[in-house]
Structures are given as structure tokens and as C-alpha cells.
Write a structure and sequence with these properties.
The complex is a heterodimer of chains A (114) and B (115).
Chain A (H helix, E strand, L loop, with lengths): L2 E4 L4 E4 L4 E3 L1 E4 L5 E7 L5 E7 L5 E4 L2 E4 L9 E3 L8 E8 L8 E3 L3 E6 L1
Parallel strand pairs in A: 2-12
Antiparallel strand pairs in A: 1-4, 3-9, 5-6, 5-10, 7-8, 8-9, 10-11, 10-12
Chain B lengths: L4 E3 L2 E4 L5 E6 L6 E7 L6 E7 L2 E5 L6 E5 L5 E5 L8 E8 L10 E2 L3 E5 L1
Parallel strand pairs in B: 2-11
Antiparallel strand pairs in B: 1-3, 3-8, 4-5, 4-9, 5-6, 7-8, 9-10, 9-11
The chains are: A mainly beta (114), B mainly beta (115).
């Protein structure tokens, strides 16, 4: 079945450091890929998405590129801020035939210290 | 414009009891999905409702059931509660059911504790 593997957390970075959170997936066909963020006490928010190979999703300074050859969708940000502290989830969905079921990784907790 | 709302925020139940969780989708959305998020884990898909019918179901037992109302709101029911049902239950809504990529908007969740 479909699965998503993320790097284990927690990750602690100093403000303005470079961030990478690795994500790889297993799925048949060509899934769409997502990064969601969950701030303390809140629901999940879509951060960015990519729907086909070589697409780059970007939002709020975060980027991720859909790499079909390595089945990866790593999240990056050039300079993190304290406000980026949250849990980040990589997810995939297969589309078609009215389906939009999300399969999530376990999440990576990011803490950014001043 | 209200986003996805869920009630109650927190709930404590005893093993063997039954529970009902409620969700109102974002305005204009017609599809509702439910997810279970255990502590320290990613959300797991329970089922999805569109046009008042269950359209897809994840790997959850029949103790988990749901309903969607004509106004698109939804309920999740869990019977014969087990300790392992303790989790954050997330509702997500989206618009359309045509196989395309539709952003799902998540509510804040209901924290269920089974003792």
C-alpha cells in the first residue's frame, strides 16, 4: 500500500538556519504530494503541494520538488524563523475516480530558537 | 468566512461507551473526510462522505461509522470504545469529487480520551 517516510524529529535549529526535512514515498502510479504544517493546538494547514514529477511547490519561503526518480519530496527553507516552529507532515494522495484520501508520514517537529 | 469547525473540543469517555463527534465544513465545501491522529503519529484516514454517502473508507473497523447531513455537516460515531481509540480526531472538508486534486481544509480536531 501507499506509505510516506519522514526523517525522525525533533529538529532544533537556530533562527536564520537552513532547514531540510526529508520525505520519501511509496505509491503506485503518480500521486500528488503535499506538505502540511500543524501549529500547537491547531488543525493541519496545507503548506505546499506538487501534482506531477519535477513540479516545485512553494509557499512562505518553503520549497519542495517532486522527484519521481528518487520518490522524494524534501522540504527546504533558506532561513527559518521562530514562528516556523511547528510539526510538519509530508503526505500523498492518489487522484482519480473521485478519490482524495491523504496518506501521511509521522511528522517532524521543528523548534527554532532565537 | 468560518473555516472547518468541530465539536466538542475535548471529550473523556469510558471503555465500552459510544461517542459522537461533529464537524461543520468550510462554507462552500461539500465533501468531508475524517482522520484519526494518535499521539506522535500522522493522521490516518477513516472515511470520506460526499452527497450523504460514504465514498471511501480506510482500515478502520465497523465500530467507526459516520453520517453526512443535507447541509454537508458530518458526524463520526465510535461504538464500544477501546483505550486505543484515544486520539485527536480531525475533520477535513473540500469541494468537488471529480478525481482532481482538491485542497482539504482541516478543523482543529476533537481530543478524545478513553479511560
Amino acid at each position: 500500500g501507499d506509505s510516506v517516510t519522514q526523517m525522525e524529529g525533533p529538529v532544533t535549529l537556530s533562527e536564520e538556519a537552513f532547514l531540510t526535512i526529508n520525505c520519501t514515498y511509496t505509491a503506485t502510479g503518480y500521486p500528488s504530494l503535499f506538505w502540511y504544517v500543524q501549529y500547537p493546538g491547531e488543525g493541519l494547514q496545507l503548506l505546499l503541494k506538487a501534482t506531477k514529477a519535477d513540479d516545485k511547490g512553494s509557499n512562505k519561503g518553503f520549497e519542495a520538488t517532486y522527484r519521481k526518480e528518487t520518490t522524494s519530496f524534501h522540504l527546504e527553507k533558506g532561513s527559518v524563523q521562530v514562528s516556523d516552529s511547528a510539526v510538519y507532515f509530508c503526505a500523498l494522495s492518489r487522484t482519480g475516480a473521485g478519490s482524495y484520501q491523504l496518506t501521511f508520514g509521522k511528522g517532524t517537529k521543528l523548534s527554532v530558537i532565537p | 468566512d468560518a473555516g472547518v469547525t468541530q465539536s466538542p473540543t475535548h471529550l473523556i469517555k469510558t471503555r465500552g461507551q459510544q461517542v459522537t463527534l461533529r464537524c461543520s465544513p468550510k462554507s462552500g465545501h461539500d465533501t468531508v473526510s475524517w482522520y484519526q491522529q494518535a499521539l506522535g503519529q500522522g493522521p490516518q484516514f477513516i472515511f470520506q462522505y460526499y452527497e450523504e454517502e460514504e465514498r471511501q473508507r480506510g482500515n478502520f473497523p465497523d465500530r467507526f461509522s459516520g453520517h453526512q447531513f443535507p447541509n454537508y455537516s458530518s458526524e463520526l460515531n465510535v461504538n464500544a470504545l477501546l483505550l486505543g481509540d484515544s486520539a485527536l480526531y480531525l475533520c477535513a472538508s473540500s469541494f468537488g469529487f471529480d478525481g482532481g486534486v482538491h485542497e482539504q481544509y482541516f478543523g482543529p480536531g476533537t481530543r478524545l480520551t478513553v479511560t
